[in-house]
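step 4 of 6: structure.
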Amino acid sequence: MLVKLLVGGLLLFMLYNLFRAMIIMLKNDPNQPPMSKFIGRRVMTSAIIVILLLLAVATGLITPNPRPY
Amino acid sequence: MAQQQVYEKYYVPDQSPWPIVGAIALFLIAFGAGNFVVEQTKGESGYGGWTLLAGIATLLVMLVGWFRNQIHESMAGKYSAQLGRSYRQGMAWFIFSEVMFFAAFFGALFYARMIAMPWLDGAGNNAMTAEVLWPNFEAVWPLTKTPGGVETTAMGWMGLPLYNTIILLISSVTCHFAHVALEKQQRGKLIAFLGVTILLGCFFLTLQVEEYVHAYREMNLTLQSGVYGNTFFLLTGFHGMHVTLGTIILIVLFFRVLKGHFTPDNHFAFQAGSWYWHFVDVVWVMLFFFVYIL
């Protein structure tokens, strides 16, 4: 369960960075950092999520396709 | 003495044929697709397929023509900051609609799996519901046997879905590198990384077609396979359509880059296209977690 919460938290962090980049893109304010900074963070988070999932399944922490609840 | 106020110029384009061409294309697609489905269902031959193809061809002509006009106007310096803001507003609404679209499908998966199925199995105060409707129903996900007796096989997460996850993840890395290269004015790297991203997108789509063929022919996993088949194909299928659109956008950007368009200070079209690609990748990571693994 802990690993699922961790993945859930990372998914939220990934979404946060994606939409932070979107706000920068839409505001077009030269005083703000470039959107690619947050896109980079979101790409890194995606990679961490996938690696974490693979490790969790390999070690049995997550059972793929279990019961619905 | 009254100071004269300076106004920014606002470019108003000539009347354009593309909106009506687009409307005709959409009509032909809807009309052709409707007839095509009916003809296929009844096993009859007809004009539905050809009408559908004509609609798609008309839509492609419209896209090429409209994009060309718009790009020429932009490169001719006819656009103002105010028009740039209107483009950003348009992109904001587009993103909002996309988020709502996928939220609806993820919501349907959540509802079916976490609420409706446990109820049918008697969870909460629904023991009598389970007893009256389907006494032998067992809430197991993926639901590989429906109460109606349809049997299917669950799509595993290894193999093609895992390969596609890695491919799309690498493509988002190359897309990000291309963006950084544009900001640093490194055109060679920009072209190389953007080209690799497009190739990876095409590779992803090829493997997804292979996955669907495998599902239909060998796993009996189809759109008629109950709620599991429905949610599986709706989520992954619509995502595939978005990858297709994203790849087309990246191809347009690629040719614009080859022609020397975009500068580090002015590249909203590239920003929007690249952001869309990252959005599509984020949706896939969530799909991989919620549809294939959990």
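step 5 of 6: annotate
 - Chain A has a mean pLDDT of 87.
 - The first helix of chain A runs from residue 2 to 27.
step 6 of 6: archive
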